[in-house]
Hints:
Elements: H1 3-24, E1 82-86, E2 102-108, E3 113-118, E4 124-130, E5 132-138, E6 144-150, E7 154-157, E8 162-167, E9 174-180, E10 188-189, H2 190-195, H3 203-210, H4 214-224
Antiparallel strand pairs: 1-2, 2-9, 3-8, 3-10, 4-7, 4-9, 5-6, 5-8
Family: Belongs to the germin family.
Keywords: Apoplast, Disulfide bond, Manganese, Metal-binding, Secreted, Signal
Organism: Eragrostis curvula
Amino acid sequence: MSAVTDRASITHRILLSVLLLATLCESDPDLLLDYCVADTSAAASIHLNGLPCIDPAAARAEHFATSALARATNPGATLFGFNVTSTSPGASLPGANAQGLAMARIDLAPGGVAPPHSHPRASEAAVVLAGSVLVGFADTSYRLYTQLLRAGEAFVFPKAMVHFMYNADAAAPAVVLSGFNSQSPGAQLVPFSAFRTEPRMPDEVLKMAFKIHGQDVQRIQRNLAGSS
C-alpha cells in the first residue's frame, strides 16, 4: 500500500471518528414516534434515558399543557433570593418527554441573584417577563459577556458555560422564563459544587483554589448550610 493510500485511510478513519463523536454529543436522542408521553405510573426501579411512554392512542391534549410556570413563588425567603420552577415530564409536563426540551420560571427577589452556575446538558434561552435583570456568562477563555435585560428582551447562555442572573432593581421583583434544549439540563451551582459536596471537598484544595484560610472555608460552609 502506498504512502498516499495510507494517509487517505488514516484521514478516512479520523473523519469517521469525528462524525461519530458529533452524533454522540447531540443534546437528546431523536424520537422514532410522533411523541412519547411519559408514563408516570411506571415502576421507579426502571431506569431509562428519559421516561417510558404510554400507548400513543391514550395521549390527551392536557399531556402537552402545563400551568406550572404560571404560579409565582416567594424567592425572598431563600438564601440567594431566587426560586426556580421547572417543567418535568415526570410531574408537570408528560408530553415533553423525549422532546429534547424543558422550561423554567425564575423568580428573583429585589436584589436577588441566581449565582454562577452551569447546565451541563443544555443551552439556555432566557426571556425577561418582568423587571430588569443583569445576565452574563464566562467562556472558556474567561471572557465575560453581560447584558442588562428589561421585559421582553432575551439572552442566550451557551451550553455548559458558567452564567448568572441578577435582579438589578433593589425595590421590585423580576421574572425570567427560560427554555432548554434538553429535558434534563442539569444544574451545578458553583458555590455548592465547591462548598456543599458530600463528602466535603478537602479544605486544603479549597484554600489553595480560592486563596482563603481554613476559617474562611468553615464560615462559607456555615453560611451555605441548610440552603437548597
